[in-house]
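Hello again,

I reread your note about wanting to compare the complex against the isolated chains. To keep things tidy I'm splitting this into two emails, and this first one only covers the full assembly. Below are the input lines as submitted, including protein chains and any nucleic acid or small-molecule components. They are followed by the predicted structure of everything together. The single-chain runs will come separately.
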Amino acid sequence: MTTLDKVPATIVTGFLGAGKTTLVRHLMQHANGRRIAIIVNEFGALGVDGETLKDCGIPGCEAENIVELANGCLCCTVADDFIPTMQALLDRPEPPGHILIETSGLALPKPLIKAFNWPAIRSRVTVDGVVTVVDAPAVAEGRFADDPEAVAAQRAADPSLDHDNPLAEVYEDQLNAADLVVLNKADLLDEATLAALRAEIAARLPRAVKVVPAREGALEPAVLLGLDAAAEDDLAARPSHHDAEDGAHEHDDFDSFVLPLPDYDTPDALLARLPDVAAMHDVLRIKGFIRLKDKPMRLAVQGVGRRFRHHFDRPWTDDRQGHLVVIGQQGMDREAVARAILG
Ligand SMILES: Nc1nc2c(ncn2[C@@H]2O[C@H](COP(=O)(O)OP(=O)(O)OP(=O)(O)O)[C@@H](O)[C@H]2O)c(=O)[nH]1
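Full-complex prediction:
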């Protein structure tokens, strides 16, 4: 069987808040009748990304086309979650023409690519491409950089370790797996910084892979789909920090919790606090929905580091409480963060 007979799947990866969901949304908006199914995986108990996409009004984003795998790391739950989900999609009377898989921001893509070699799905799907979305301003700010002195000290203590910064490790693994790198949030950098970043990333990639700048993940489907990479046949070209452990890895470096919110008369004070809380407690990501008294619309809130955005996305369809998902590094003081957010 050639790749032509297989359903192509695109893995959209990239660190927390890089803009994966935004890119997937844009893609769906410009899908031009392609039958695309979406699998969304998230770190954290509540699926905010799935919620953001589901029934967002874009044709193709109907709930039945979006499967949420909320169980942390897709690459660690391949047998239980991922393979059965893929089989169920492929067994549909009208199988999708393309499958988009949005990984959690903390997932390592390589074990997921490997999963395409499982006999249960190998003859039916292929990885058309791994699209790695990069938060350009976060990289420019040195968010994923190692501190060379700390690395040297750590190596001296334990030669099997090569990073002091778990963010750096995830970032590198995601870049190493890429068939296309999207340098997103280009609007937040000047031309010269963006050009320098583009060259720097291109130079560190293990293979010749295109690096394309984007704003709001706005790229033509023709750029993202049809890469025909068959990545599952090409694993050796995608080095991972976890190769030695055969893909096994821990997510102990990161922590997340869900903070239920009261209903608010006005969200202003809460919204004003969030960037400072994120900065003070080194929170990586905050996202969720605020419920306002007497307002049928829910207020979607998205924060990456100390950069926040909010908008009314759609009416609440249930009587769930407002809530925020908070993701940080291990050791984050959950109670202090919760107290600071609630004010
Ligand atoms: N300024 C700017 N903001 C962006 C851009 N793309 C996305 N964002 C914002 O960045 C935040 C995170 O975007 P998402 O698309 O949710 O990121 P994600 O990678 O899916 O996040 P996780 O699933 O939590 O890892 C949101 O507030 C977006 O509106 C961009 O090009 N420029």
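For quick reference: The chain is about 30% helix and 25% strand.

B.
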